[in-house]
Amino acid sequence: MIKMKRKLPIVVSIILIILSIAYSIYLYYEWQSTNLVVNNPMIKKIQSENDTINLKSIVHEAEKNVVQIEAQSNNQSLTGSGFLYNEKGDIITNAHVIQDADTIYVRTANARVYPAAVIGIGDNTDIAVLRVPQLAGETGLAIDSDTLAEIGDEVIALGSPHGFQNTVTLGIISGTERNFTVDGYDYNNAYQISALITHGNSGGPLINRTTGEVIGINSVGTEDGTIGFSIPIIDVITEIENWSNEAQNSQLTFTNTEDLLNTIDTTQFKQDAEYVMEYFLDSIIIRDYVAAYSLLGDSIQTQTSYPSFREGYIQIVDVEYNHQTTTIVDNNHASIKVDVTLIKNQPNEEEQINENITYEFMVGFENDQLKIISIEYKKE
Which residues contact residue 194 at a Cβ distance below 8 angstroms, ignoring those fewer than 6 apart? Predict the structure, then answer.
């Protein structure tokens, strides 16, 4: 009896030790299989900021799909903006930009000019849709057709004010549900924005800074230029898509592009040629080699493949340039000289070098479109 009493504490101790070991093992495997959750607001803030799309990326991708609209009505020239939104080559803009126009052309970011036809236009709502078959197959800008913007949301407005293509202004939604009438068009539930809307901006996209998606159509601004108004895309997207689905290319009439090219004066030609040169260099800066290569004429592309072209610029991390002179050679060609500093990575080295070069771009028409016909350079 006494022996049993002596053994009992030993047995209990052994059982407790075994249970402790088993529980420790259980806790270890439970910890291994459980996701660690840290409720730290600072960590959440940093993660949220990293998820926000880079501003430069948003602007660059948007610029590819924003066009300058040039319309002729009773010998009067009208300019505005628009943006590609689907793979049919359809462009959203404002009705007042192309109202009563006899001919309509769009000028793309890479300086291509194409005739456009109206496939839908609002009577009281200031929206219109154009079709450009040459742009069919392009993706277009992403549309947010489900969400209404709120006061304080950061936005980006793109357009072509006063003929300057792809001008970008930043701001916020400073008001909502604004109702008013301008030139016979009713604006209902319009966004009030702090980004400027001036002549030529009308019809351009209003983009959500966080998502990179289109949330509105920039339409009108106050005379002092301090306040702009944008039509919420959510309110008009159904009508826009109905026009797009009903339109048949065979029933549309397009003006010949040559008619426009024949009316371009020397000043306009010079500006367009310089724009092509600048767009080429800017594309190199942001490493968009596809866009840069697309500006080259057939004579250059025949001699240089895209991989070879890309390889020649891949080491460049930045470009600084100073335009010198533009000389009109003839009605179809312009010579542009520009001093360029290429900031390049050294192969297999961490250091960078600056390379100073004087470029001469020959820009001219090829198949009715402006292209870089030749590039000559001289190193300093």
Answer: 171, 172, 174, 227, 228
Q: Please check whether residue 125 is in contact with residue 95, taking contact to mean a CB–CB distance below 8 angstroms.
A: yes
* Chain-centre distance for alpha carbon 123: 29
Q: Does the residue 15 lie in any domain? A: no
Domain range for residue 94? 55-140
Task: Name the maximum alpha-carbon separation found in the chain.
Answer: 123
Helix (H) or strand (E) holding 278: helix 266-285
Q: How many domains does the chain have?
A: 3
Structure token digits, residue 337: 């000289």
Q: Which residues contact 251 (CB under 8 A, 6 or more apart)?
A: none
Low-confidence ranges of the chain (pLDDT < 70): 1-17, 19-53, 161-166, 199, 224-225, 257-264, 347-349
Nearest to 317 by CA among 297, 353, 345, 293: 345
Here the CATH number for the domain that contains residue 182 is: 2.40.10.10
How far is residue 201's CA from residue 193's CA, in Å, rounded to a whole number? 13
pLDDT of amino acid 221? 81
